[in-house]
Design a protein that fits this description.
Number of strands: 15
Distance between the termini: 29 Å
Radius of gyration: 24 Å
CATH class of the largest domain: Mainly Beta
CATH topology of the largest domain: UDP N-Acetylglucosamine Acyltransferase, domain 1
Strand content: 5-15%
CATH architecture of the largest domain: 3 Solenoid
Number of domains: 2
Shape: elongated
Order of helices and strands: HHHHEEEEEEEEEEEEEEEHH
Amino acid sequence: MFDRIREDVRSVFARDPAARGRLEILLAYPGLHAIWFHRLSHWLWNHRLRLLARLLSNLARWLTGIEIHPGACIGRRFFIDHGMGVVIGETAEIGDDCTLYHGVTLGGTSWRHGKRHPTLGNNVVVGAGAKVLGPIQVGDGARVGSNAVVLKDVPEGATVVGIPGRVVSRAPAEPAPDHARLAERLGFDAYGVARDMPDPVAHAVNCMLDHISVLDAKVQTLTASVRALGGEVDERGLPPLDGCQIDSSPEGEASPVEGVKN
């Protein structure tokens, strides 16, 4: 039990930059509290103590604002960020390393008994306010955009947005090693954004990184050719990019993105 709790705490550190300490996570993260309540109520549900299981899940809902039916099956390292308004139905299944934000519903579209709620694979991220409805499959590594309404299966690694949900990108290829190193040196990391998502700023920066990477390789080749022909080349190196910080805001003003993530 304590190993699972430590695993849960580590998963919060890995996915929430606002987390500052283990005690804070243990005491002030209702998403974790809801998961711990669910594990106990799920055990009671599976041992036919269903009224007690429902009472316990109702208590958890009252304390955390998160409703998880005791019958739902949830994998390891599941993280509910913020959490208020999350609803997970009875026959929902969630894989390992999944993340849900506030206002998410994993609901049904039928009153019939049997499987009527979605199944999420591993490493799935569901954005704030999204509704994933019906006995559909969401593949490993998929992302569901904020406020999307998903009614059909989602392929592995795909990104779904809109009402009704539509696939806007498939699993992107891994970036070239030189491109990834350049992005890291510049300090560019589009949080939660795939390379081909419809984010114009991230797309523009990625295009610039690609251009700089190719241009850098061509300059190196040209320099080597000039030296081989006996020409002189400026020996000064380029200014280092490591630790480069870009701050266009006036001194003393906060960046416009500060405070978005608490």
